[in-house]
Design goal:
There is one protein chain. With 322 residues, this protein is of the alpha/beta class. The protein has a single domain, classed as UDP-N-acetylmuramoyl-L-alanine:D-glutamate ligase (3-Layer(aba) Sandwich). Helices cover 31% and strands 25% of the residues. Strands 5-4-1-8-9-10-11-12-13 form a nine-stranded mixed β-sheet, sandwiched between helices. Helix 1 crosses helix 9. The protein is globular. The mean pLDDT is 95. It binds adenosine-5'-triphosphate and magnesium ion. Magnesium ion binds next to loops.
């Protein structure tokens, strides 16, 4: 692989960006035909890939975002939200995917999401934008597999092409809307067996492994992975757990006040990957991921977080303090 000598390893995010309208809180569920007034709302760039790119910006860590937006007003607005990120966002011939997230007083949320442009995004359109990894150790993060049907059809090729371009591969599949059917499990296990950083949440890991508890699931999945792969399970307010090389790592989530946890997992991914790219080990990166997620979900509105405002959270100075 022809790497430029001076560039540091960096992150390329290949996945989903969409528009999120987050509003709430609402107590109970309204009757059809009524109107409910809510105290807070925020229109923000979202999608798993979009959330991770913005979290990298909050952390002052460079990244590339390779994705698409829809051919409408929201698409133009969305593209403008990634200033400061090296974003290459093509235009898909469809309306931009929009997700309305209703926050409930209990902390749960309900999403209404349109299919929109994510259905059109394909590897053929993204592949020419990627280019060789800028340095050894660079990571490509794949997000939103189950929301990107055309990309997902080509995932075997996506992973092969990215490896050929010199990237380590990180993946956050998200939850499959159709559930962990045998076909979805087989396809997912095939992808994961070729990845280096697997960033799932607890119920995704247990669902994929058909296990009743997290540790059983992690033990069941690890032998199916590359020996050098890190398997991370995000465990919500508890923090995160990882398995690597027969060892178990865990980090606790700093407890913070939260209006909505939308994008918590994606923010964790940014903290974890930024830490790994800066040379930190698994324990420090898990803790960095938890610190990043807590700090970001503690902010409302999220758009008020300035670029680099959270840079200290994954700085090497934190290493060894976990
Ligand atoms: N209530 C919370 N308080 C503090 N930290 C939290 C809370 N919820 C989530 N986190 C942090 O965010 C990380 C990711 O959360 P979670 O395990 O819910 O992932 P996820 O389900 O993939 O999230 P997402 O819904 O964004 O996909 C956790 O590892 C933790 O560090
Ligand atoms: Mg997630």
């Amino acid at each position: 692989m022809d790497h430029q000598n001076t560039a540091p390893p960096s992150l390329a995010i290949i996945g989903d960006v969409a528009v999120d309208l987050v509003l709430g809180p609402v107590d109970g569920w309204p009757a059809i035909g009524t109107e409910t007034i809510m105290r807070r709302s925020e229109l923000r760039a979202g999608g798993s890939g979009g959330n991770t790119a913005l979290a990298m910006r909050h952390l002052g860590a460079p990244c590339r975002l390779l994705s698409q937006v829809g051919a409408d007003t929201f698409g133009g607005w969305l593209a403008g939200e990634f200033s400061g990120v090296d974003a290459q966002l093509g235009v898909a011939q469809a309306a931009t995917t929009v997700s309305t997230g209703v926050i409930h007083t209990c902390g749960e949320r309900t999403f209404f999401t349109t299919k929109g442009h994510l259905e059109e995004q394909s590897w053929a359109q993204i592949r020419p934008l990627v280019g060789a990894a800028p340095a050894p150790g660079s990571i490509a993060l794949l997000t939103g597999a189950f929301l990107l049907p055309k990309m997902r059809e080509a995932y075997g090729q996506v992973i092969g092409d990215l490896a050929d371009l010199g990237y380590q591969i990180a993946i956050d599949t998200g939850w499959p809307p159709e559930g962990w059917t045998p076909a979805i499990r087989a396809a997912t296990l095939g992808w994961l067996s070729r990845c280096d950083h697997i960033l799932l949440n607890e119920i995704e890991v247990t669902g994929l492994a058909e296990a009743d508890d997290l540790d059983t699931a992690l033990r069941r999945l690890t032998p199916l992975l590359r020996p050098e792969a890190v398997l991370v399970a995000k465990t919500g307010a508890k923090g995160a757990v990882a398995h690597y090389g027969g060892a178990r790592f865990a980090a606790a989530a700093p407890q913070v006040e939260v209006f909505d946890t939308i994008g918590a997992g994606d923010s964790f991914n940014a903290g974890y990957l930024a830490a790994r790219l800066s040379g930190l080990g698994i324990q420090d990166a898990l803790a960095g991921g938890c610190r990043a997620a807590s700090a970001i979900i503690n902010h409302f509105p999220r758009r008020a977080i300035a670029p680099g405002q959270l840079a200290d959270l994954v700085a090497p100075a934190h290493a060894g303090r976990n």
